Automatic annotation (TrEMBL):
The keyword Chaperone does not apply. Gene3D superfamilies: 2.40.50.100. Residues 11-77 form the Mop domain. Keywords: Molybdenum. Residues 1-20 are annotated as: Disordered. It comes from Kibdelosporangium phytohabitans. It comes from the Bacteria. Residues 1-10 have a biased composition (Polar residues). This is Mop domain-containing protein. InterPro entries: Mo/tungstate-bd_C_term_dom, Mop_domain, Transp-assoc_OB_typ1.
Length: 78
């Protein structure tokens, strides 16, 4: 991860960390949604603060790692 002129290596216990490229950023007053396209064409959307988008320099085309941590995943059928 690179922020500004600094470079950092981040260690994490989160195992699901697909790499992708930001395809859209929609900012509101406080929150933003960041859509990321994965290499296989799938998209993941994250809701983060607008301040985080600015601090991380996230724009369309920014390469990112998507850290996925979930306490529960549920499915249903009709």
């Amino acid at each position: 991860m690179t922020t500004g002129s600094q470079s950092a290596i981040m260690a994490s216990s989160i195992r699901d960390q697909p790499a992708g490229t930001v395809s859209a950023v929609r900012s509101g007053e406080v929150m933003a949604t960041v859509r990321t396209r994965l290499p296989g064409g799938q998209e993941i959307t994250a809701a983060i603060t607008r301040e985080a988008v600015e601090d991380l320099g996230i724009t369309d085309g920014t390469p990112v790692s998507v850290l996925v941590k979930s306490a529960e995943v549920a499915l249903t059928t009709s």
